[in-house]
Model the fold of this input.
Amino acid sequence: MARKDYLFTSESVSEGHPDKVCDRISDAVLDAFLAEDPYARVACETLATTNRLVIAGEVRGPQSVIDSVEDIARACVKDIGYEQDGFHWENMTVSNHLHAQSADIAQGVDSGADKDEGAGDQGIMFGYATKETDALMPAPIHYSHAILRRLAEVRKDGTAPQLGPDAKSQLSVRYVDSKPVEATSIVLSTQHLDATMSSMDVRELVEPYIREVLPEGWITDSTVWHVNPTGKFVIGGPDGDAGLTGRKIIVDTYGGAAPHGGGAFSGKDPTKVDRSAAYASRYLAKNIVAADLAERCTLQLAYAIGVTEPQSIFVDTYGTGKVSEEKIEAAAASVMSLTPRGIREKLGMNKPIYQRTASYGHFGRAPEADGGFSWEKTDLVDALKAAI
Done:
């Protein structure tokens, strides 16, 4: 029987974290290709270190976008807010090593066994949803993201100009009867631009914003705070630590509360099922929970490179299902096509909607009018109920 009373911890990192700088640039490059050619193929990786970016990968799309990669990267770094001696959007060196997609990969993706679009790679993808929050996300990762989003807002609007772009949060949550009820520990390390600030000074600055975003009653006299526990944090971003695309996959998903298939998302076009099928898995899991078929749901899909149909679909409702998992699996498979093309068309994924996913989570966000976060819609509820 699953435990009902326990502590669980998740972390988030800000848009200025070195790895997130790289995710942002890779997804901005992807968006630039999709804006020019909705069927462009992109696998873009970024490395960041002291005043240097290296961008590499395989693409198939307009040469004009390849030629503009340096400008795209500088714009991202400027928007994030880096203007420090060791990492400055204007002064850094940008090396562009994008090249043409492998013909061997292209032939499998372009023409699967049934002449439809094949999966861009083999792999397993997981989606998850839970009724712990209104966003149907696990509470620890949901509120870890919320803390850093709020701090980024006040940094950028000038309310808290002492803050720098680089930050990490971590939230430990107590569960009672499987429900989150209390923050037992709050950990925040945030870059600050005023070198004279102590850890206590930083806490006094950020604590009101943290209290704003956490549910009422979660912070108690027993809550343990660790704000900049190592002391001064002035040198941040890629000047303090190298960054790479795709190193924050647990931050990007469910904070460790659910399985992850291993594939990163950023910089990859939607023929890469480790991105698109992970989004589809979340879409289905969220709709299963929204349809009140379960309190919690993990859904797994598996693919083979060049093959259109998934190799398997698996559902686990952790004993909370209102009907059998086998019935939910059959219903999920019946309400949408799970081929790469079917996913792409159902969720409108051949659009420049990815740069915004690069920080504060790919899931648990509100669907947007231009198609962003379409996988967060709950428009399959009626179809799932009818299929059961």
The radius of gyration is 21 Å.
